[in-house]
Amino acid sequence: MTFGSPLIAATAEPKPSLNQLKTQVEHLYNEIESLTEQYNGQKERLKQAQRSADLAKKTLAKSQTDLEEKRRKAGLYAQDAYMTGGIDSSLALAMSGDPARYLDRAATTYALQLQQGEEVSQITKAMDMAERAKASAKAREVEVKKLVTDLASQRDKIRTLVAKTESSLFKRALSQAGQSFGRATKIDIPIPGQGKAAEATKWALTQQLRPYVWGAAGPTTFDCSGLVMWAYQKVGISLPHYTGDQWTAGTHVSREDLRPGDLVFFYSDLHHVGIYIGGGMMVHAPHTGDVVRVAPLGNRPFAGGVRIAD
């Protein structure tokens, strides 16, 4: 018998292609979108639970106040009964100078006592219900807070995965293009997503290396807001040719939630804008003497992101 190693060569798993990485990013985007909506829904339920708890507390406080007042009045009735109850009713009637008035007062007192007893019973029941409502609302609030915390944790995990996958996607594309941010190089990169935002991004990327010209919005030269306006026109969305108006043209999103096609603004006066493409990168028309190019977000003071379309 002979002994030896298996004759199987160890091979590393092949790296995913750019299109496979793009598909991974799209899948993660769908997951984070779904989780975000669940998160938003749970936050709304939390608000409702908090309102229910507040209402229960107010109801409980009112019930306690009412109950104390009823108890106080009941105590006065009891005191009066104690002071007069030692006399037999027939004797009290006989001693009364006005029997009719006595009977009337006795009937009224008895009726009030019955009514008071009923009110005390009702308010006690109401107080019990309020206590149960308060406990139920509190339990719901604790439950929803836990759900929101769990969803936020899941969302953060997916954000991390998106960032990691985007980073792999862009590193691969940049290395294939031999990109150096000191000089402009046209990059052919797959953009995740199928909606209008992704399509607008693809249109913007087709204009790489076109010259920057102040006030231009295509078809062969652009300034920063002109490139944004031109790209979104290509997908049927009209935007103004001014960064200040583009800033208010959509929904504001955090840097962590940027998606391809979101507008990214820079400087406190919002005088520069680009189109986010993922992986911490954007396509933009920088300034006079430069060309439309892909660049990282990090070398400018980020002011915010705006989502124009899905």
Secondary-structure-based class equals: alpha+beta
End-to-end CA span = 67 Å
For the largest beta-sheet, the strand count, sense and barrel status come to:
6 strands, antiparallel
Mean pLDDT across every amino acid position: 76
The overall strand count is 6
Low-confidence stretches: 1-12
Strand order of the largest sheet: 1-6-2-3-4-5
Outline type: elongated
Rounded to an integer, what's the Rg over CA atoms? 37 Å
Strand content: 5-15%
Please give the share of residues in helix: 55-70%
Order of helices and strands: HHHHHHEEEEEE
Number of helices: 6
Give keywords:
6-stranded antiparallel beta sheet; 9% strand; disordered N terminus; 57% helix; 310 residues; single chain; elongated; alpha+beta
Question: What is this structure, in a nutshell?
Answer:
The chain is α+β, with helices and mostly antiparallel strands and 310 residues long. Helices cover 57% and strands 9% of the residues. A hairpin with a 5-residue loop joins β2 and β3 (272-278).
Question: Would you write up a description of this structure?
Answer:
- The protein has 310 residues and is α+β, with helices and mostly antiparallel strands.
- The protein has six helices and six strands.
- The chain has helices at 18-84, 89-95, 99-177, 196-205, 224-233, 243-247; strands at residues 251-253, 263-266, 272-278, 281-284, 293-296, 302-307.
- A six-stranded antiparallel beta sheet has the order 1-6-2-3-4-5.
- The longest helix has 79 residues, at 99-177.
- It is elongated and about 115 Å long.
- The relative contact order is 0.10.
- The model is unreliable at 1-12 (pLDDT under 50).
